[in-house]
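I am writing to request your help with a piece of structural work I have in hand. The matter concerns a single protein, recorded as an amino acid sequence and a row of backbone structure tokens. Could you please explain, in whatever detail you think fit, how the structure tokens follow from the sequence? Thank you for your consideration; the sequence and its tokens are set out here:
>
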Amino acid sequence: MPERTVGPRPTLEAVAARAGVSRATASRVVNGGAGVRPALADKVRLAVEELGYVPNHAARTLVTRRNGAVAVIIAEPEFRVFSDPFFAQQIRGISRELTAHDTQLVLLWAEGSGDHERIGRYLGGGHVDGALAFSLHDDRLPALIARTGVPAVLGGRPAAGEGPSIPFVDCDNRGGAREAVRHLVSLGRRHIAHIAGPRDQTSAVDRIRGYRDVLADADPLLMCQGDFTEASGARAMAELLERCPGTDAVFAANDTMALGALRTLRERGMRVPQDVAVVGFDDMASVALAADPPLTTVRQDIEGMGRIMVRLLMRLLDAPDDDVPASVITSTALVRRASA
């Protein structure tokens, strides 16, 4: 079989000649510039397709003053991100929306102060047009982003009064928690425990507040600390059963900890929901529907929030002088299944 010969890479001049326009006109169309009549722009795009021309990134940047890339910063260890389906859903929403805007996703990890310094240098170096950051544990990362001057949107409410003013997207954590606990109360449960998430994250704090909104006089022993992992949920459930044997319901601050709680209850020979009812938070299908029994949980649109983050950032980039919402809070809804 004869070897296929690869010809020279098509040039912008060749595109212009094929379309019958000047090189400057071809450059404006190819690199996203404005001011070209639609009929001419169509000819240039057809020539690009016929010739297989690939635009030069440096030239596009000079014309549009954009890199066509956005940094997505996750303040968690890599192993946590790859093992927790929450992050997969959020990144999927972000990635799909960035793709719709012809923008590349650049994933960055922020596990410690050394990573913060590296990320600050990268953002300040002009490699990306903007930044998205989520799973925040304190105000250091927002402050770092603000210092670089890069437009940004946060995933999750920052702590009140801390850090710079950066737009954020979150769900109604407190309202969703209230709905979960009220559901357990409506079932006649009298000793309702809460497995909380890490208190350096506002989502966990807001879910604690929602629990206390309904059960202001709950025994403090019915509150147990987790870290949003399945193992912590299993440990917390075991601790609750030891110190509060009469526990007849549990609201876990996320589905993964609820899964750990179900495992402990099963190991102890306790029936769900007959002996202990369990409600989670997130409604991640890979967890909630695979649980035994299927998990009653509070649904938040994780992927949708990722998309909204990108849309807010694009508004900041396209029209920085326009009013952009300081926050977008999405709704939550209780999804009833067999665990409660």
Q: What stands out?
A: The longest helix spans residues 302-318. Residues 90 and 302 are 5 Å apart (CA to CA). Residues 1-5 have pLDDT under 50 and may be disordered.
